[in-house]
Amino acid sequence: xxxxxxxxxxxxxxxxxxxxxxxxxxxxxxxxxxxxxxxxxxxxxxxxxxxxxxxxxxxxxxxxxxxxxxxxxxxxxxxxxxxxxxxxxxxxxxxxxxxxxxxxxxxxxxxxxxxxxxxxxxxxxxxxxxxxxxxxxxxxxxxxxxxxxxxxxxxxxxxxxxxxxxxxxxxxxxxxxxxxxxxxxxxxxxxxxxxxxxxxxxxxxxxxxxxxxxxxxxxxxxxxxxxxxxxxxxxxxxxxx
Length: 241
What we know:
By secondary structure, the chain is α+β, with helices and mostly antiparallel strands. The protein folds into two domains: 23-105; 108-240, 2-Layer Sandwich (Beta-Lactamase). It has helices spanning 24-33, 37-40, 43-47, 60-105, 109-122, 154-158, 160-165, 175-181, 223-240; strands at residues 49-51, 57-59, 128-133, 146-148, 169-172, 191-197, 204-210. The strands form two sheets. It has a five-stranded mixed sheet, covered by helices on one side. Strands 1-2 form a two-stranded antiparallel ribbon. The N and C termini lie far apart (133 Å).
């Protein structure tokens, strides 16, 4: 028998090559480029299965419904929070208006101190108020609730950093400092907000104290405190002239 030979002109049949793997990123990019794909092939929504957190499998459309329901719940919670915040701001604005009217109508410095103390206690639930004015603008010691803050006095030394920076100071307060500001207070003041009056003109400062150690925090909002200080400053200036 003769030897088998290969026909040099016979066509060479190439072996089939495996399809190139498609990455997740390519699939995601394809679906983003053709967002109507699932609309044209709705059966895929039910045929594709997505693993649930509980271990069972659900269809893609069921998974979408679940995600949308969760998103709606988060949006509703955010909306409720915004509504609650708006209501709280409305109540706070109404109380601030009442404070402004009381300060405007106060006929004297003593009446200003009394109006501020009453408003803070009755409207805002605070326990104590302090008003300190810098000499030579104020040197009297006969007005309950308003004291002169002498440069070399105990209060000035205890609050030297605040008096230097003139920045609002909120947070827990040491017992000795609380006694300096609120010597007649019947409760223990645990937190306070110290706010400058006329920061650029150094009129003085007010301090609002609370028995609640969480009432005033270092990073809390300062808008209400600034508004209160501006109202008190305007009222005091009117009575000092």
